[in-house]
Amino acid sequence: MINSYQVWDFFCYYASNFIIVYDLLRDIMSLFIQAAHAAPETAGAAGLFGQILLPVAFFAIFYFLVIRPQSKRTKEHRAMVNALTVGSEIIFAGGLMGRIKAIEGDYAVVSLNNNTDVKVQRASVISVLPAGTIESV
Fold first, then answer.
1. Is 30 helix (H, G, I), strand (E, B) or coil?
2. 20 to 30 Å CA-CA from 50: which of 22, 83, 84, 99?
């Protein structure tokens, strides 16, 4: 059970850390502002180049940190779904494990046990298990 002293200690700890980080960032920013005020005037072409370069740099960072890894994961998942065969042991999005009994276009009939078969979309398969995994679980 959490008492009010623990909550207060938690709040004070994080509030003091926030203040320290805020002061540090404010000091760093003031150095940049002073340097910017001390810098001589630049030509218009350099300013235009900087205005174009910054969005391009942001897009490049966004591409390499978000878009490219997601497209690689999508490609790997699509290859896994296309490689499904009858008898493959799988885990699908509901968290259930089963063995593929039949493949019917975009759907697969999955046998959960000897008596229960379900039809799921092939795209809902999360992973393919090594053979014999279901018996060992």
1. helix
2. 22
Q: Is 118 exposed, middle or buried (0-12, 13-18, 19+ CB in 10 A)?
A: middle
State mean pLDDT over 64-69.
91
pLDDT, tens digit (0-9, with 9 covering 90-100), for 81-90: 999 999 999 9
This prediction has a pTM of 0.59
In this predicted structure, what is the pLDDT of residue 88?
Answer: 93
Token output for 67 = 């878009």
Edge-to-edge, what's the strand order for the sheet holding 89-92? 117-121, 107-111, 97-104, 89-92, 125-129
Q: Whole-angstrom Cα distance, residue 110 to residue 102?
A: 7
Which helix (H) or strand (E) segment is 110 a member of? Answer: strand 107-111
What are 20's two structure tokens?
């320290």
